[in-house]
Predict the 3D structure of the following.
Amino acid sequence: MGEYGRHAQQQYGLARSAWSVARAPALLPQVLGRLLHGAVITWHPDGAPAGRAVAARLRLADPAGGVLIAERTGRVFAVGERLGARMLVLLARRPQAPVRPRRVRLPGGGQVAIRPSGARDRATVAVLYALCGPLPVARGQAEYLVSPRRGIGLLARDGGRPVGWAGLLWDEPGAEMVLLIAPAWWDRGLGDLLLRQLVDAAWSAGVGDVWLHTASGDDAAHGAVSRLGLPVAVEDDGAGRTLMLRLKAVPAPAAEDRAVYPAASARVSPVRRDRAAKPSSVPGQ
């Protein structure tokens, strides 16, 4: 590739990154990671720690609070990379129009309103966490789940009552899915709906793998993940079960449904849209 081709490719990558952040500021760390090739992006809620010996280190004030640190070994950041990263931060600071809750009718009966969740929903997620019991992951505290830059979340309400929450927690190069469904809403399809939204968000963010931790022998959770229509790898050690989806190997389908969480790319969803799928019955997941 000649010099002109490399320059055009860089310009295209920057424009795509800017478009992604403008539509979904919450995905800023993931987009920075793609822009700064080979860099590791970490978020520090209480400010940047002491730097370690690396070839390149870039400190960025996070619009969501705290500091984003980009570090790369081998080569320094070019001037264009630094300017591009700071431009993305400025785009992420732009005021966002509030996302109106999307009302969805569930196949198992009832309607829910779904919207992106944030730090203001800490108490609500804590209520769902208490209803569903301890999560099979060590970091399953409500405070962690709704912390900025840990990931993205979706909150489902029936009127003023929270009935479900789903989170996609970044764990580079993949992401962990967490699902909390109020017991009265098991077997209505809410789990299936929220899982589809999480996978759509991961696909749009360019995440290669997503996984869900659950109890060993939890066939209900396995069924809910299987109904996504994607290949599922299962690891079960007798105490816990991990359900893994590899999104990079999945070809895109011909159609896409509108997601609650803003898409970060033009890629269409990999999830099979099976309107006749049975509702989920994932107790506590």
